[in-house]
Amino acid sequence: MQEAMTETMPETGGEKATRLERAELSEGWSEAGRMPKIIAALRMGAKTDLGRVRDNNEDKFDFFEPEDLSVLATKGCFYAVADGMGGHSAGQIACELALKTVISCYFDNPSADTEASLRSAVIEANSVIYEMAQSVSDRQGMGTTLTAVIVREDRMTVAQVGDSRAYLLRGRKIAQLTEDHSWVAEQVRLGTMTLAEAQVSPFRNIITRSIGTSAVVEPDIFTQSLQVGDTLVLCSDGLSGHLEPQEIETITEQHSPSAAALSLVEAANERGGRDNITALVLSVRALTPYSGIGGQAEGSVSEAGKEEKSSRWGRRK
Predict the structure, then answer these.
(1) Measured between alpha carbons, how far is 272 from 179 in angstroms, rounded to an integer?
(2) H or E stretch including 72?
(3) What pTM did the predictor assign?
(4) What is the rounded average pLDDT of the residues 265-274?
(5) What is the C-alpha to C-alpha distance for residues 231 and 257, in angstroms, rounded to an integer?
(6) 34 with 66: CB under 8 angstroms?
(7) 16 in a domain, yes or no?
(8) Which positions ≥6 away from 250 have C-beta within 8 Å?
(9) Which partner from 33, 63, 173, 274 sits 20 to 30 angstroms from 19, CA to CA?
(10) Cα(210)–Cα(42) distance, rounded to whole angstroms?
(11) Nearest-5° Cα angle at 19, 13 to 20
């Protein structure tokens, strides 16, 4: 759970909810006619855990993997983690609502501009949560972090708000793709605090940017290429606060994505589990040219949740 730099607003009454109909996400795409140039074969594993201190889990992960080739070509696959804040279950509501809204808005937008569509979806999620926070007294100050990745053909687009993180493992090296939007991270970037000081600072849980705690939010959005053998790790600060990047790399390289996610969470709990812990591990197994009619590359989306072949909608508590 996080703390956000925000002001309390008065109650106005009313509540706004977001509907998520999986059938509507792909409605009309079959007529779009666009086929992907490259099919990414992905393997995913994810785990979220209460930790050993908190009374409830305000972390969430979600993913959406369309099977329709027109959707894959235009929108790709979606993966994200979120870490809520607010108390009285408000953090749980905020991260759940953020993920539902971003997925729905992103896939409902017919634009092939991934960065613009993702930015618009995050901004809409911010508006939905902010309006709810102003309307319901016990949800004032509610908000959430968001680290989301779109995998579209051989490229990934990342959206970042808050201090959850995305790491890239490539060639036995790990790199943090995202920048933390936290007070201590900003001090480190300014040179007024060392990384070691930031890790023990009493202000390390204060985040400077989050979804829903102010009327306007500006997500970091960027795109870069993917390679076969790449592995992405999305995680909440309950994981990154306990494990160094090199430890995340070592554990991830030793296991399949599902086993890696479980092992990462277990390692964080062994270090104290002072916060909720979430890890999502995504491995790029192949990038195969699409061969046209009747030639869809095998394994076009991840093998997680094969039993829900019709929609590949992944959910967890």
Answers:
(1) 25
(2) helix 69-74
(3) 0.83
(4) 97
(5) 9
(6) no
(7) no
(8) none
(9) 33
(10) 29
(11) 150
Range of the domain at 246: 35-314
Q: What are phi and psi of 161, to 5 degrees?
A: -140, 120
Each residue's pLDDT tens digit, 75-96: 999 999 999 998 667 999 999 9
Domain count for the chain: 1
Q: Who wins on pLDDT, 197 or 59?
A: 59
Q: What are phi and psi of 85, to 5 degrees?
A: -145, 155
Residue for token digits 């779009």? 32
How is residue 161 written in tokens? 């708000």
Alpha carbon distance 80, 78 (integer Å): 7
pLDDT, position 182 = 75
Q: In what order do the strands lie in the sheet with 173-176?
A: 38-49, 277-289, 231-235, 165-170, 173-176
| Six token digits for residue 291 | 């061969």
The yes-or-no verdict on residue 26 having pLDDT over 60 is no
Average pLDDT over residues 247-263: 98
CATH code: domain of residue 243: 3.60.40.10
pLDDT in tens, 98-119: 999 999 999 999 999 999 999 9
